[in-house]
Every structure is written in C-alpha cells, then in structure tokens.
Design brief:
Helix content is 27%, strand content 27%. It has 369 residues and is α/β, with parallel strands linked by helices. It folds into two domains: 39-196, Nucleoside Triphosphate Pyrophosphohydrolase, CATH 3.90.79; 202-364, Phosphoglycerate mutase-like (Rossmann fold, 3-Layer(aba) Sandwich), CATH 3.40.50. The strands form two sheets. Strands 1, 2, 3, 4, 5, 6, 7 and 8 form an eight-stranded mixed beta sheet that branches. Helix 7 (289-302) packs across helix 8. The protein starts with 52 loop residues before the first strand and ends in a 5-residue tail after the last strand. Residues 1-10 and 13-54 have low confidence and may be disordered.
C-alpha cells in the first residue's frame, strides 16, 4: 500500500466460499495450457490503458487502479507455496497489493507494493487475471496481478506492520481456505493452471521498439545517426521504471543511435550490460533478415532474462521467430501486422523454463507526453 494507507477506502467484506474443486496442488508438465487467445490469463490485460473513469449506467465513476503479485516458490516436496498477507486494518488475508502512485506503470507498482508489504524484492513472471470490484457506490477498483517467483522461503518481517502485520507461506489448499475475498481465488486458480501446464516458471525476453525519433524527412545526415526526438527522450527516461518489473541484466540492441539512446537510461539505472548487434539494424535486416532470426533463436536458447531493442521493420522477423517458438494458443497473440509495436512500446514474452516455449505475452505503452 502507498504511503497514505491511513486514508485508504474500506474494502467491502466478502463471504468465504467452499474450496473449489479446481484448487489442487500443481506439478509442472511440458506443455502450456490450452486457452483461447481472448481468455489467456495475462496475455493482454496489462496493455490496457485507462483514463481513470468508467461508465456505469451512463455516469462516469472513478477507477482506482492497484497492482500486486502472487509470490510463490517450490517446497522440497515439489509442491507450491504461496505468500499471503494479513492486513490488521481490514482484518483480512489477501495477496500483497496496493494503489498505483501517480502515473506509475502497474508492473512497477506491483514490485514496489510487494517490497513495501513483505520486504521481498521480486521480479515479475507472467500476468494473471485482474480483479475488479465496486468500492461502495462511488468508485470501482481494478487490481492487476502477476506471478512472482521467490528463491526459497524467504520471510523478512513486514516493513510496515500497521499495514501488513503478518505474512505466511502456505500451500494452495491453505491459501484457498485463508483468503478472505472470494475474488482472490481467481488468481490462485490461474496460477495453479499455469503450473500444471509447465507455464508458471518463466523468464522474460523483453522486446522494445526505439522511442519516437527525429523525422526522417527532416534529417539530412546518415540514418544511423538519427536521434530520438523530445517525445522519444521522455520515453527513454521513463523506461527504467517499467523495466524494474523484469530487471533484465543483458541488453542487446541495434547500434543505431535512436536505439542506443532508448536503452541508455536503463543501462545507467540498472548497471545492465549492453551488446550491440549490426544484424538488428534496418539496413542489415533488409539485406538478410535470417541473421536477425538467428539472433532471436540464440537468445531463446540461452534461457536468461534479456532485453532486445530494434527498429519497426526488424520486428516482423523478431515476432515471427518468437511465434515459431510459442505455444499454439500464444503465437496468435504476438503482433502480426505493421507497425507491430508503437514507438517506445514494450512487449514481454514469458518463456517457460521447462519447455522453452513462449507461454504468455504482455504489452506496455511508455508515455511520450
């Protein structure tokens, strides 16, 4: 929760329900879950950008946005353990979550809220279904959720005991019995389904199209020197906040200036290592797109978090290669039509550690204003 938790709205109590039959301990397999593209948990929910209001019976109601995560680890017996938190103010058990601060990206808010409520520094995995419910008659609350793997049963003391005074690692069955809100079981079921399909333990391959560049028609020098325009520079400055959610320690980029300028603020903020690859430039791709495809295959084979920054024409090959290595129901979620991504936009492909397949994707716009 944010620093003004004392002024938070009371959350409506919900009746507990019986344990649904679908809540079972899960064990990984090698194939991703069979889902329709529109029902794929987390596939597109995080790319929605709202104006803070929604229409209800013709009247706009304020939309309160929040974010959180289901932290998990694997116990020695192979079973899942999940972290639940107790909030003394509401006297309830829930997932760690809290409100966005200003224009904060939801993934960044999820990481911050987990740290503030549990003391854990997490890297997000695949997105999970969001929760939406009424806050009385005056507002609607929407909470975006992600899975977040934690190495071992780390259990630091909650940093803000007035907001969260207890945290506990529990089995899925115990989580189902402990959770106060009925709606919190939706994320639990989605996480267990992903685990049964071998699609929970993932690593991120982050694809970034460079930010808004100086117009080509107004640039009199070599195209490889064309810089970011003012909106693109603002996008580059905002990119590190979003990328804290996945923390890629390696960055592979086209050496052209508008790409390296896009990733530079993240390199400075994170200490990540940069490797430039000429095959990601527009000219090299025009001559031989197969070399860019080979690079994507190499990154997939390494199985480590990485960010790739390139140009609009190259994205067709990048996403085509990812589609070749995606689960059947996920390949259709990858961009297939020009311009693929907007300037400065980010796509996160979540790759299963067990199968090597892309099992979920999400997209995020980086504001230029």
């Amino acid at each position: 929760m944010g620093p003004h938790a004392a002024a938070a709205e009371p959350e409506p109590p919900e009746r507990r329900e019986n344990t649904p039959a679908s809540v079972q301990s899960a064990h990984p397999h090698t194939r991703p879950p069979a889902r329709s593209p529109h029902g794929a948990p987390g596939a597109q929910g995080a790319q929605e950008h709202r104006d803070g209001h929604e229409q209800v019976a013709g009247q706009p109601l304020p939309l309160v946005r929040a974010a959180g995560a289901l932290c998990w680890h694997r116990a020695p017996d192979g079973g899942l353990r999940l972290l639940v938190v107790h909030r003394p103010r509401y006297r309830d058990w829930s997932w760690p979550k809290g409100k966005l601060e200003g224009a904060e990206p939801p993934p960044a808010a999820a990481v911050r809220e987990v740290a503030e409520e549990t003391g854990l520094d997490v890297r997000l995995g695949r997105a999970l279904p969001s929760a939406r419910y009424a806050l009385g008659a005056d507002a609607t609350k929407e909470v975006s959720y992600w899975a977040a793997h934690v190495d071992g049963a780390k259990h630091p003391l909650p940093p803000r005991p007035a907001e969260v005074d207890r945290t506990e690692w529990v089995t899925p069955e115990e989580a189902d019995a402990r959770l106060t809100r009925r709606g919190d079981r939706v994320q639990l079921r989605a996480l267990l389904a992903a685990d049964r399909a071998g699609a929970l333990d993932t690593w991120p391959l982050v694809v970034v199209r460079h930010g808004h560049a100086h117009p080509k028609t107004a640039w009199g020098r070599s195209d490889d020197e064309r810089p970011l325009a003012a909106p693109g520079r603002r996008q580059a400055e905002r990119l590190p906040e979003l990328l804290t959610a996945w923390q890629p320690k390696r960055v592979v980029s086209s050496p052209w200036r508008r790409c390296t300028d896009t990733v530079e603020p993240y390199l400075q903020a994170s200490g990540a290592k940069l490797k430039t690859r000429g095959r990601l430039t527009e000219d090299a791709h025009r001559r031989d797109p197969g070399r860019a495809a080979k690079l994507v295959r190499k990154l997939l084979g390494k199985g480590r978090p990485v960010m790739l920054c390139t140009h609009r024409p190259v994205l067709s090959t990048v996403f085509g290669e990812l589609a070749e290595h995606a689960a059947d129901d996920v390949s259709a979620l990858l961009p297939q039509h020009d311009p693929y991504l907007g300037p400065g936009e980010v796509l996160v492909a979540h790759v299963s550690r067990s199968s090597g397949l892309v099992v979920a994707v999400e997209r995020h716009l980086v504001p230029a204003g």
